[in-house]
Write a structure and sequence with these properties.
- This is PhzF family phenazine biosynthesis protein.
- Belongs to the PhzF family.
- Pfam families: PhzC-PhzF.
- Keywords: Isomerase.
- The protein is of the alpha+beta class and 301 residues long.
- The protein has 2 domains: 5-118, Diaminopimelate Epimerase, Chain A, domain 1 (Roll), CATH 3.10.310; 126-283, Diaminopimelate Epimerase, Chain A, domain 1 (Roll).
- The chain has 6 helices and 16 strands.
Length: 301
């Protein structure tokens, strides 16, 4: 197997983070080989290549889950940049990266630091009501909750790179009690053009902090410990819901607690000259995973 190192991304003070197997020397790997690596590790995986547009970009990244290629993966992007930093391959704090979903900018805050904060750009989000609002009850049943467990707000499809269905849960205890039915979730996601359900609730008494869980449509595992692209979609959904005010203050999304992998995802809006969001950045801290060998039965992504 090509040299692969596992990086835990969006780590919190309590540990956690979302493991991402990373290969920074992926030249020559085929899509089938990269899918096989992701399947063997059981996690979203990142692969770094020379850019196709070398005059404009520093790297080209590709992303795979055990079942298919992904156009974008936030935590694998951050994990790949972090690993390049740890290997001494970064010469500047700002990078331009080609992905299937477009060009991404990465910022390494503290290039000389052993523990840099790394964030990546995402475009302005889109937020829309569900095309099939009559499926609300079925969606709630598919996550193992009841109608009264959900806030009296609409379910929304939000996206920066991939569409996520936002489900506002009443409190953290109910959020932790959710139990995904992966087969039903996949079928429902097909009907509403979504790539996963993103459950969230405000953290009681703390402004701009939220707890969340991500149940993907079809990745080969039932839940993610930290999902940067979903957190950016959530940020724009929160504006639509009126649960946050516009501004430069970061939003902190806590994910993974129910899996025993508490993770912290930081999102901040990028504002235009009129003070309106024209994009955002998502970031966090990373570290080498305590395990590096693939575990066939491990699905804690």
């Amino acid at each position: 197997m090509r040299d692969v190192q596992v990086v835990e991304v969006f780590k919190s003070a309590s540990g956690g983070g979302n493991p991402a197997p990373i290969a920074v020397d992926a030249e020559g790997l085929t899509a089938e080989q990269m899918t096989a690596i992701a399947r063997r590790y059981g996690h979203e995986s990142g692969f770094a290549f020379h850019p196709e547009q070398a005059a404009d970009n520093d790297y080209r990244f590709r992303f795979f889950v055990p079942l298919h290629e992904m156009s974008m993966c936030g935590h694998a992007t951050i994990g790949t940049v972090w690993l390049l930093h740890k290997l001494g391959r970064l010469q500047r704090e700002r990078l331009s990266i080609e992905t299937l979903s477009g060009t991404v900018t990465a910022h390494v805050q503290g290039l000389e630091s052993q523990d840099p904060f790394i964030e990546i750009s995402q475009p302005v989000g889109t937020v829309e009501p569900l095309s099939r609002p009559e499926l609300r009850e079925e969606i709630i049943e598919a996550i193992g909750l009841r109608a009264e467990d959900i806030l009296d707000l609409p379910l929304l499809n939000a996206a920066t790179s991939r569409v996520k269905t936002l489900i506002p849960v009443r409190n953290p205890a109910l959020l932790d009690a959710a139990r995904p039915d992966s087969a039903r979730i996949e079928a429902l996601c097909e009907l509403i053009d979504s790539t996963g359900f993103y459950l969230f609730c405000p953290r009681p008494g703390i402004e701009r902090q939220f707890d969340s869980r991500q149940f993907p449509k079809a990745s080969g595992y039932p839940e993610d410990a930290a999902t940067g692209i979903a957190a950016t979609a959530l940020a724009f959904g929160l504006l639509q819901y009126g649960l946050i005010e516009n501004g430069e203050r970061s939003i902190l999304v806590h994910q993974g607690r129910a899996m025993g992998r508490p993770s912290d995802i930081h999102v901040r809006f990028e504002l235009d000259g009129q003070g309106q969001p024209n994009g955002c950045f998502v970031g966090g801290y990373s570290a080498f995973a305590t395990w590096q060998q693939p575990e066939a039965d491990h699905h804690g992504a």
